[in-house]
């Protein structure tokens, strides 16, 4: 049985990054979250605050609940059979599970990028314009400006500027993933959720996505799930380690990767279990 | 992967311990060679310097490979960083042992007991060897309390070193013809004081590895064990 804290030098538990715990300091604030899939408890009483314009990484072994927890922030779990939850998730101090809140509106603010690039079988241009069109925007000049800006933000524009009408499916995996990021950015979210966004990519493409994530931090609050420890260390400001549905440790990434408080965190990040 | 990094870290630890043991032996042999004016033993120390250098290169390579291939984090990263610095410190201790051996060869004759005693050479050697033994055992048993004992011992070396210039000046005044020999001994004291500093650095690195505490450049009062 592993001890709760590292001995003999462990100090007090650190489950919040740097700032104080007032919810108004957090862009996202999960409070006492339990998640169930029928009888199975996937998340066990997690509370965690995410600072605005920061990058937060969720790490943990497969099945620990990190993707489930991430998907709570834009209500992607709502469609899963047997899903139920307790607790509140606040976005800018408003509960996103409030029955009056429109999920479509939430997803304009909280964009998501998935593990596998999933461009639509449309042109590059139409992929990025899609979110704007389903919002009912018809001003083509506005759409074009937003498409180009988003492709530039996703550091893809210079590679495809003469081929905007080409099928998105003709792009490489890394380009497709940056296109999906551009598509998410086009509707001007303030939060970007990324579920293992580089796990299907080669090191060069992964590096480009990491650079992009760094760049996007200026304007967006980013939450990233990753199995790649080095990636979590490189890109994030804060790291949360989840294990069997519980939050084991949450804090400054530099601290987690150099001197974690908990034995379980240390054993996981050093590859000794998980 | 985890078993693999454990194997690599164990190999690195074994190599650092081997170098530490070798360097400690070099110091002990240096003391015996000086005590007995044993030129043969001094030559043996000088020959062993090649082994010290060779092990240093092996440990450098081990550290480089661990960093490049295993991307260690947390306690593993601290261990590799500590091993890398300890390696450099040990090599320099080895250099000092080698230089002292060269003095013995150059010195050319036995040191009389009175000079030996007044320059406190035995105390200097005993203390520096004890410090090296402490860090060696502290590393094997992962005992930071034992590592901390080194800090107090280092103060003893510093004190003797500070007093040595006066003692040497007095000895030279009393017997000017022996000036060069006294200066040799004065140099040995200086080198053993440096050995003490380097061993203290090793103790600090061990504490960094085991407790994630940085003690470098921190002032300690005379009763402080380094906490």
UniProtKB/TrEMBL annotation, chain A:
It comes from the Bacteria. Pfam families: ABC_tran (PF00005). Transmembrane segments: none annotated. GO terms for biological process: phosphate ion transmembrane transport. Residues 1-23 are annotated as: Disordered. Keywords: ATP-binding, Nucleotide-binding, Phosphate transport, Transport. Residues 28-269 form the ABC transporter domain. Residues 1-21 have a biased composition (Basic and acidic residues). GO terms for cellular component: membrane. One of its GO terms (molecular function) is ATP hydrolysis activity. InterPro entries: AAA+_ATPase (IPR003593), ABC_transporter-like_ATP-bd (IPR003439), ABC_transporter-like_CS (IPR017871), P-loop_NTPase (IPR027417), PstB-like (IPR005670). PANTHER family: ABC TRANSPORTER I FAMILY MEMBER 17. This is Phosphate ABC transporter ATP-binding protein.
TrEMBL record, chain B:
SUPFAM superfamilies: PhoU-like. It comes from the Bacteria. Pfam families: PhoU. InterPro entries: PhoU (IPR028366), PhoU-like_sf (IPR038078), PhoU_dom (IPR026022). Keywords: Cytoplasm, Phosphate transport, Transport. Residues 17-104, 121-205 form the PhoU domain. GO terms for cellular component: cytoplasm. GO terms for biological process: intracellular phosphate ion homeostasis; negative regulation of phosphate metabolic process; phosphate ion transport. It is found in: Cytoplasm. Homodimer. Belongs to the PhoU family. Plays a role in the regulation of phosphate uptake. PANTHER family: PHOSPHATE-SPECIFIC TRANSPORT SYSTEM ACCESSORY PROTEIN PHOU (PTHR42930:SF3). This is Phosphate-specific transport system accessory protein PhoU. It comes from Fodinibius halophilus.
